[in-house]
Specification:
The protein has 338 residues and is of the alpha/beta class. It is built from 14 helices and 9 strands. It has one domain: Glycosidases (TIM Barrel), CATH 3.20.20. The structure holds ligand 9MR. Ligand 9MR binds next to loops.
Amino acid sequence: MSETTGKLRALLGDIPGFYVGAAVRPDRIAGEPQYAETLAREFNMLVAENHMKMKFTQPRRGEFEFTAADAVVVFAQANDMAVRGHTLVWHLAVPGWVTERELSRGEAIDILHTHIDAVVRHFKGKVMAWDVMNEAIDHDDPTRLRETIWYRAIGPDYLDMIFRRAHEADPDALLFYNDYEAEGMNAKSDAVYELMKDLLARGVPLHGVGLQMHISVEDFGPDKPLNAQTLAANIERLGALGLQVHVTEMDVRTPNEHAPEARARRTEIYREVFEVCLAQEACTAFLTWGFTDKYTWVPKFFEIPDAAPLLFDADYQPKPAYDAMVEALKHYKERLGT
Ligand code: 9MR
């Protein structure tokens, strides 16, 4: 182990109930020793980037496929790491047999219940927290629910149903609502907050909110709507509902990677978001969407070839953002006196 690595997990060791993790690709865990070594050395939580989504877990109706997801869980258990489950219900990564025609309400309910029962029971006791619902709020108008295949067939009450069903299948799992662009105080995070309040008021089993945190260096800063204060305020109001908050999918795309200021901004953004999470009692996990710039969805999706959004470079060397998180953790522990 080099002098600069291994510090994140070592420092985390004695903080109970707080997790730092990353999204992973099972073929890389099996196929690339450095990938697996870095994960085990630095993190105490994992989430499958894709392999617990419906498209992978139920590729054909009634036929469940858990090989790839199981590999992630086995690796996590062997290395004493917690697992987040992502995701039971979404409008994307849905298999073709679901989307090929409109569904009746009864059929859609049956499909969701069967899926949740099988997947949650399979991972019972192994997945600490499930993203039961991913991205249910409309992209353009956050006052509405997104008109997905599930919403169209069932109506707004599908949310209550899926949380209740997941809770029956594994009463010990923490159940999360996960979404993007709802990190600071804005119309979308207001909508998430109201939705969570409504679910709780109806007695729906719900334990947390995931803030995805897919951002650009240009999105976060003292003069931007999203900054340390607005993030803290949003986490605090969710915490006041009795909910936990996980930062679930952080990456910081850097359109101008070759500008030193842009790289420095990225480092500071990681430091600040992590500091807010450490300081807020409700924030109990911080995960990045991948960990090495070698494997990230960002360059392709945003057409930024050298976006370099993560904590390790493509050669698995820690970047300044990693050092900033280590420093934040050290300061946090000094303040706690541990
Ligand atoms: O990173 C994931 C990418 O590999 C997949 O093709 C895509 C569709 O399944 O999902 C990406 O992950 C998304 C996550 O599941 C939900 N929040 C947004 C993430 C980035 O698109």
